[in-house]
C-alpha cells in the first residue's frame, strides 16, 4: 500500500538518532546507532556529521568517542532537524499556469500545498524534548 507521507532514510536516521543521542548519558557512536536503527554505519555517520556541522551535536573521536547533544532539546524543533538533513522545505504553488489549467479547483495547491503547510506547522510545534 502506498504511503502518503514518508521520510527519507536520511531524515529517519537523523530524527531517530537525535532522540537516541539526547537520551544517552554518554557519547553514542555510529556503530551503536547502526545496531539500534538497523542502518549502515557509513550512512549514519554522514547524516550525523550534517547535524554536527549545523551545531546540533558534538562529535568526539577515539575509543570512547561518538556523538553527544549540543543543544537544549526544548530549543530545537523537529522541523529544524528535518531541514538540517533535507534542506529547507519549500512551499510551491502549482507549476501550471492558471489560465491554461483545465481544472477549476487546483489539486496541487489545495492538496499538496496544504499538506506541506500542515506538515511544516506540525514539525514546528514538536520539539526534541517532546520525544525524550
Q: What are the defining features of this structure?
A:
single chain, mainly alpha, two-stranded antiparallel ribbon, 48% helix
What can you see in these coordinates?
The protein has helices at 9-23, 30-37, 41-53, 78-86, 107-124; strands spanning 57-60, 66-69. It has 132 residues and is mainly α. The protein has one domain: Arc Repressor Mutant, subunit A. Strands 1-2 form a two-stranded antiparallel ribbon. Strand 1 (57-60) and strand 2 form a beta hairpin. The longest helix has 18 residues, at 107-124. It starts with 8 loop residues before the first helix and ends in an 8-residue tail after the last helix. The model has no long low-confidence stretch (mean pLDDT 90).
Task: Please give a quick description of this structure.
The protein is mainly alpha-helical and 132 residues long. It has five helices and two strands, in the order H-H-H-E-E-H-H.
Mean pLDDT: 90
Total domains? 1
Bin the helical content. 40-55%
Going by CATH, what is the homologous superfamily? Winged helix-like DNA-binding domain superfamily/Winged helix DNA-binding domain
Q: Assign the CATH architecture.
A: Orthogonal Bundle
What is the radius of gyration?
18 Å
Main pleated sheet:
2 strands, antiparallel
Strand pairing plus helix content: what structural class?
mainly alpha
Write out the strand line-up for the largest beta sheet, numbering strands in chain order: 1-2
Q: Unreliable runs, pLDDT <50, ≥5 residues?
A: none
Strand coverage percent: 5-15%
- Spell out the helices and strands N to C: HHHEEHH
CATH level-3 fold name: Arc Repressor Mutant, subunit A
Query: Quick one: overall form?
Result: elongated
CATH class: Mainly Alpha
Distance between the termini: 31 Å
**Treating each run of at least 4 consecutive H or I residues as one helix, how many helices?**
5
Amino acid at each position: 500500500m502506498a504511503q502518503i507521507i514518508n521520510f527519507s532514510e536520511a531524515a529517519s536516521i537523523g530524527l531517530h538518532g537525535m532522540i537516541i543521542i539526547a537520551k544517552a548519558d554518554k557519547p553514542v557512536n555510529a556503530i551503536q546507532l547502526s545496531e539500534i536503527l538497523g542502518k549502515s554505519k557509513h550512512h549514519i555517520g554522514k547524516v550525523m556529521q550534517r547535524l554536527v556541522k549545523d551545531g546540533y551535536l558534538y562529535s568526539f573521536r577515539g575509543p570512547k568517542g561518538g556523538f553527544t547533544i549540543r543543544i537544549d532539546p526544548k530549543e530545537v524543533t523537529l522541523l529544524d532537524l528535518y531541514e538540517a538533513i533535507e534542506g529547507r522545505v519549500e512551499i510551491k504553488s502549482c507549476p501550471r499556469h492558471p489560465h491554461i489549467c483545465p481544472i477549476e479547483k487546483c489539486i496541487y495547491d489545495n492538496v499538496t500545498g496544504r499538506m506541506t503547510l500542515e506538515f511544516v506547522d506540525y514539525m514546528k510545534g514538536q520539539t526534541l524534548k517532546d520525544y525524550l
